[in-house]
Specification:
By secondary structure, the chain is α/β, with parallel strands linked by helices. Helix content is 50%, strand content 17%. It has a five-stranded parallel beta sheet with strand order 2-6-1-7-8, with helices on both faces. Strands 3-4-5 form a three-stranded antiparallel beta sheet.
Amino acid sequence: MINVAIDGPAGAGKSTIAKKAAKDLGFIYVDTGAMFRAMALYMVRSGADLDNSGDIAAKVGDADIDIVYEDGIQCVMLNGENVNGLIRTEEISNAASKVAVVKEVRQKMLVLQKDIAKKHDVIMDGRDIGSAVLPDADLKIYLTASVDVRAMRRYKENTEKGMASDLDAIKTDIRERDERDMTRAEAPLTKVPDAVEIDSSDMTIDEVVAKIEGLIREIR
């Protein structure tokens, strides 16, 4: 099995790029961010206090999260419900950043993610894939971009979806999420020494995908 780990901050394009490369190469794409968002959705629905790690930890056991493929499309399942269309809002993104710092949440996700990687050629993206989930991955990539570029991407995404957005507010939110992700006690966002860093600020999606696919072909 070939395992590829892609880490990086919010809005760097990890999911879009990993998904495209996986499809081109016939790998399984594992969107760990979507799994954490599903957990965040569960916590929001259950009325959990997102600023209380104990409250979140107490509810983790009641959330069953899985990834299945239907007609070639990855579906994130929360207690049997396909929640793909419910986990991409700003509210859930912010909630996921808080939920993800809870040790019990990460432990539960770790088991599922490692199990998937043992069975398939995978491209897995997230914040701690190369450092914690797949420390022995065949290829590790740290994908990043400037705050301004990441904020503009998010702003355009929201606008295209018809969602009202404030660019300055998005920039502030991204900086705060970066700070949380990089300083959390449990599996923080970090660039591991053996990762290949790719700054996508001045690159198109296709250019980044081509670079990553080239790196993967070198190890196949």
